[in-house]
């Protein structure tokens, strides 16, 4: 397991709550940051770019990747497979980058199991009506798919207490500031100051 895991920031929460919007902002405003590009079997939406938003693959290819143990975690969300590849994350962590994840609550649980020091933010709207409006205004999902996402959202909020931070994404400018502040605090985590080196500098013994 990587000892750089404190440099992991997970954004999860209902689809339509604003995770992609906030991630785009972080990618533009945070230096030395890497976005974990997931692999999915979901069809590409208008405006999405292969290798930027996702790697879009067939179900057969996805299952092969599961068998090859390529994923740190994977889950079925709204009837499609989504997975996080392990190798690029390890590479980015070793290079001292902050690794950002946009994953669902199942993925969040898996990441926290493996990387206990990872930090997480639950992104949500203030209620389900606002979420529905946002999904409708995004114009990327059918009526049926929106209903499905709303049903999933009702289950997702049950996991809120497992997160380090909760962000009710109302005022977008405030939300951007909040995620940037959290990202900056990762540089002050206790693990940034390895005890061994610190004790040596102090001339103190260390256990
Ligand atoms: P997610 O990645 O969580 O599915 P998106 O980032 O795609 O969500 O946001 C869903 C929609 O809501 C998009 O059309 C986005 O522009 C809009 N949106 C995001 N944050 C806000 C906000 N604070 N106020 C109003 N609309 C927002
Ligand atoms: P969307 O289809 O809206 O892009 O994503 C649907 C849901 O799948 C979102 O909650 C998103 O965070 C989640 N998701 C995206 N990639 C992954 C992944 O690699 N693993 C898991 N567990 N969830 C993911």
TrEMBL record:
Compartments, record wording: Cytoplasm
UniProt entry keywords in alphabetical sequence: ATP-binding, Cytoplasm, Kinase, Nucleotide-binding, Transferase
SMART domains documented for this protein: GuKc
Keyword field contains Plastid: no
Binding site for ATP: 13-20
Principal subcellular localization: cytoplasm
Record-linked PROSITE patterns: GUANYLATE_KINASE_1 (PS00856), GUANYLATE_KINASE_2 (PS50052)
Record Pfam families: Guanylate_kin (PF00625)
Catalytic activity, EC: 2.7.4.8
Domain of life: Bacteria
Record bears the keyword Signal: no
Function summary: Essential for recycling GMP and indirectly, cGMP.
Entries under PANTHER family matching the protein: GUANYLATE KINASE (PTHR23117:SF13), GUANYLATE KINASE-RELATED (PTHR23117)
Name of protein: Guanylate kinase
Organism encoding this protein: Helicobacter gastrofelis
